[in-house]
Design goal:
heterodimer, A: 11 strands, B: alpha+beta, 3 domains
């Protein structure tokens, strides 16, 4: 039961093979069994069972949605009413959110059962889940490796069968890279497609929530529930949400695929390059045309990102000041002491590093050279994508230059860590939708194929991913010990 | 003022916009609620919340911009102003920096009979912070976030004013304007209209400005004048004593009538402004401007000119009657309803009505005698039912109750006596009773005539038609 897809589980629930309560109990049991993975920060067993009971009634009444009764995990970046929402930080270890994020509201309304809150890098800042205050997460494919980050808990939970699906958020690759490392399907939607309300902000102009699932078909089901305009988020876009499941089976003949040559240069593991090539050949077989494209400004993506994201985060994280909620130091001597010790004691190293970088970049005298310059680079990168996507339907390449690396392997070298997001970051700067789907293995660790589409073309992306999954079985692989 | 020195003043005025809800949330902005009862998740800056711009605030800013003939930015941007303070929940204030919604405009002020044009550099939208409460917490600080997120329009003038008097005239003019536009209630006690003044002095004839000091949060017209004058004196004394003015923020202490240093600019924050990624740029179309322009009322200057022309008022009366839209409306409703002479209406409103309102501490909107009831009274003066003197008595009664002038005149028997027979009888009696005075008058002492009028009026409780009394007296006392 635990390695079934959402689509399969939905059919089982309707056929009466099992109830949502049974399904939920089963998942909760597995979460206990594999607690060593550390995929969850909070497990909400009681609430989950209550939700499952309601879901079973809906199923019986025939008013169920596709997601009704399906267990999901919420990344701990999404505010959940009455439930601890830590964002992976000591700062919010005591924070019980008094409201639900829009994404949570929507999944609740669809009848999804929340199993708990998944582990993540602190404030979504990290590429390995190692910056979490709650400890690192093990990769189910190799427990001495990282699951990727920042949505590492969600990715590991889906891969290990500790949930049927999960939410993630992606600021520079935080859905796609852990999806690739854990051999699952992850979708980062177009900026503005999914409401950010209640998703604790890291870098507001880049953050976007999305689904993490076993298959593209499941991603379509979850995205259907998550997407849409939200009047509480001014940057969400008021556009109709298409039926994502309807177009999944469209044939791919005539699909134009672009391979950005900058994605295949120095630094890419050769075996990964071979896996991607094989995947692209599979698409050729399905009728796609493939051509090389060039995006000369991609090489500036990482420096631009590491100015813009820290700049925004330096302001976004100012509200964590020990005054109204979250961690407060003991016996502050005065206001300055309250601020400096509360923040000093509760933020981790990586968060502090980015706040400092951002504060510096925005300072008088540096603003033009850093922030403004980075915004110009961002525009150039966006233009590169736009002209490439004027020629082809989708772009393909690797998600990450390497497969999952060892726990602790890169923690001492932040620059090395930042470079692991080289293929994902540019997509956030441009605001485009992109997916990671399993495409093979290197060293018995999963490799993700990245598919990048045009603005609001999630339906096309899902279609492209789904057709591949109909013809391959990489997404069906289950890590040893988690069958 | 020492004529060797020229004073340079620029004002930054924060006008609280009269929207129903906050600038970025749906919480109410009503004044005086229990602490923290009007602060929603967005105002508290909870993790994950996002601002959504209140379009009404935009409309009001545009309305103001059009009224001062300013450039309205087709594209303006909200920015984050970063600083830590306990009553600033997000650790940044959402304001506008590089691209404000209202650009260059101007306001004309009248000082000592001359009109002067003061430039308005810009006006931008921003959110207010909460309040820190330092009393009643035994050494701790209380935070009330009701005010957090209240919409403000910060109106920045050019350094065009050359005296405290001009600064006050500008502030009053702006105060009058925002209330005309109904974009701000102008309540200075509640902080709806606050002023920061940038003051510097320079030797007369020098082109460069002197170093300025900023006086913060001055909450009355009187204090603005006093604070600026005090600051001018302080700066001149300082320079003449061989010292130097330092650029700093100073606080005016109304009790001691002095300004004192709050913090120097050198220790001021670097606010690290950058565009707020949570909010889209504000785009103002020509169509929207036209729509707003159509809602603009007649503005104070135009109304004043019209009052002078249409009602034959002098400058002072016109200025008084157009000082608020409500008062001008009251006046015009009175003229209309009374069908009488504008002059009498002017005298009544600027005299009796305003006098009574001031005495009672009321606004014209709260006037117990509305224009229609007052018109009823003025009609009775015009048709000689009562005298002007009795009218004041009737007005007093109307102020206290709900009755119409006619009802009061009737019930109190105040109707003027025009029956010449009755008046004659009284006059005859008074002439008979005062032979000495008759003799004086006939002997050429004109003043004594007034004595007879007074006696007749007294006898008839003021109800006799004065013209009639005069006429009959003159005939009877023919020299």
């Amino acid at each position: 039961m635990n390695n079934k897809t959402i689509a399969e589980l939905a059919r089982g629930l309707r056929a009466g093979e099992f109830s949502s309560v049974e399904l939920t109990q089963d998942y909760l049991e597995r979460i206990r069994q594999f607690s060593a993975l550390n995929a969850y920060i909070t497990v909400t067993a009681e609430q989950a069972l209550a939700q499952a009971e309601v879901a079973d009634k809906r199923l019986a009444a025939g008013t169920a949605d596709l997601l009704t009764g399906i267990p999901v995990a919420q990344k701990d970046i999404f505010c959940t009413d009455g439930v601890k929402t830590s964002c992976g930080s000591k700062m919010l270890d005591n924070f019980i959110s008094p409201y639900n994020a829009t994404v949570v509201e929507k999944l609740n309304a669809a009848g999804a059962v929340m199993l708990g809150k998944s582990n993540m890098d602190e404030f979504a800042m990290g590429s390995s889940n190692e910056t979490s205050f709650y400890g690192s997460v093990q990769n189910p494919w190799n427990v001495s490796c990282v699951p990727g980050g920042s949505s590492g808990g969600s990715a590991a939970a889906v891969a290990a069968g500790l949930t049927a699906g999960a939410t993630g958020s992606d600021t520079g690759g935080s859905i796609r890279q852990p999806a690739a490392f854990c051999g699952i399907t992850g979708l980062k939607p177009t900026y503005g497609r999914v409401s950010r309300y209640g998703m604790i902000a890291y870098a507001s102009s880049l953050d976007q929530g999305g689904p993490m699932t076993r298959t593209a078909e499941d991603a379509a089901i979850m995205l259907q529930a998550m997407a849409g305009f939200d009047e509480k988020d001014s940057t969400s876009v008021n556009m109709p949400v298409p039926d994502y499941s309807a177009g999944l089976n469209q044939p791919l003949s005539g699909l134009k695929i672009g391979l950005p040559k900058e994605f295949f240069g120095e630094g890419l593991n050769g075996e990964i390059a071979a896996v991607i090539e094989t995947a692209v050949n599979e698409y050729r077989k399905l009728g796609a045309e493939v051509k090389e494209v060039s995006m000369p400004n991609l090489k500036h993506a990482i420096p631009a990102y590491y100015v813009i994201a820290p700049a925004e985060c330096s302001a976004n994280l100012s509200r964590f000041d020990g005054v109204r909620f979250g961690y407060r130091c003991e016996n502050p001597a005065d206001l300055a002491d309250l601020y400096t010790r509360s923040r000093g004691e509760a933020f981790g190293k990586e968060v502090k590093r980015r706040i400092l970088i951002g504060t510096y970049a925005l300072s008088a005298g540096y603003y033009d050279a850093y922030y403004l310059k980075a915004q110009k680079v961002r525009r150039l990168i966006t233009d590169d994508f736009k002209s490439a996507l004027a020629e082809v339907d989708v772009l393909m390449g690797p998600v990450s230059p390497t497969v999952a690396f060892g726990l602790g392997e890169k923690t001492g070298d932040p620059i090395q860590m930042y470079l692991s997001d080289i293929y994902t970051i540019a997509v956030n700067l441009a605001g485009l939708p992109a997916m990671s789907i399993p495409a093979g293995f290197v060293d018995n660790k999963p490799v993700g194929l990245q598919i990048i589409g045009n603005y609001f073309a999630e339906d096309r992306l899902l279609n492209v991913a789904h057709r591949y999954q109909m013809n391959t079985d990489w997404h069906k692989q289950v890590p040893k010990g988690f069958e | 003022m020492n004529s060797q020195w020229e004073v340079v003043i620029g004002l930054e005025i924060h006008a609280q916009l009269a929207t129903k809800s906050k600038i970025f949330s749906g919480a109410s902005i009503a004044y005086g609620a229990e602490p923290n009862t009007q602060a929603c998740a967005v105002d508290l800056g909870l993790p994950g919340v996002l601002p959504v711009l209140n379009q009404e605030a935009v409309r009001m800013a545009v309305k103001f911009g059009i009224a001062i003939e300013a450039e309205i930015a087709p594209y303006s941007v909200f920015a984050r102003k970063n600083y830590f303070y306990p009553d600033l929940p997000k650790g940044y204030q959402i304001s506008q920096f590089e691209l404000p919604i209202v650009g260059n405009g101007h306001l004309d002020i009248d000082v000592d009979g001359a009109t002067k044009r003061v430039g308005v550099t810009r006006a931008h939208l921003e959110e207010d912070a909460g309040k820190s409460l330092h009393e009643d917490f035994h050494g701790l600080t209380g935070i009330d976030l009701n005010r957090a997120g209240t919409p403000l329009l910060e109106i920045v003038s050019e350094p065009d004013m050359r005296s405290a008097k001009e600064a006050v005239a500008y502030m009053r003019k702006l105060h009058e304007l925002v209330r005309y536009l109904e974009i701000c209630d102008g309540n200075m006690q509640e902080g709806s209209f606050r002023c920061d003044a940038n003051v510097s002095v320079r030797p007369r004839g020098q082109a460069e400005f002197g170093t300025r000091a900023e006086i913060k949060n001055i909450n009355s017209f009187r204090f603005v004048e006093k604070a600026i004058n005090h600051e001018i004196e302080r700066q001149i004394d300082l320079i003449e004593g061989g010292g130097k003015v330092v650029q700093e923020t100073r606080l005016y202490d109304a009790n001691k009538d002095e300004t004192r240093s709050m913090r120097g600019k050198e220790e001021a924050n670097d606010y690290r402004y950058f565009p707020d990624p949570d909010l889209l740029p504000v785009e103002i179309t020509e169509a929207f401007k036209d729509e707003v322009r159509a809602t603009l009322p007649e503005l104070p200057d135009a109304k004043k000119r019209r009052f002078i022309e249409q009602y034959g008022q002098d400058d002072e009366s016109a200025a008084t009657l157009t000082s608020s839209r409500q008062l001008a409306d009251y006046y015009e409703a009175l003229v209309e309803a009374s069908g009488g002479e504008a002059k009498i209406c002017t005298n009544w409103v600027t005299g009796d009505v305003l006098g009574a309102l001031n005495k009672a501490g009321l606004e014209v909107g709260q006037c117990p005698v509305d224009a229609e009831r007052l018109a009823g009274l003025l009609k009775r003066i015009a048709d000689d039912t009562i005298s002007g003197k009795i009218a004041k008595q009737v007005f007093e009664a109307m102020w206290q109750g709900q009755e119409t002038a006619d009802q009061i005149i009737e019930s109190q028997g105040l109707k003027q006596i025009t029956d010449t027979g009755a008046i004659e009888a009284i006059i005859d009696k008074i002439i008979a009773d005062n032979p000495g005075q008759v003799e004086q008058y006939l002997g050429g002492k004109d003043k004594v005539f007034g004595f007879f009028v007074g006696q007749v009026m007294k006898e008839m409780q003021g109800k006799a038609n004065p013209a009639e009394v005069n006429k009959i007296l003159k005939t009877k006392l023919k020299r």
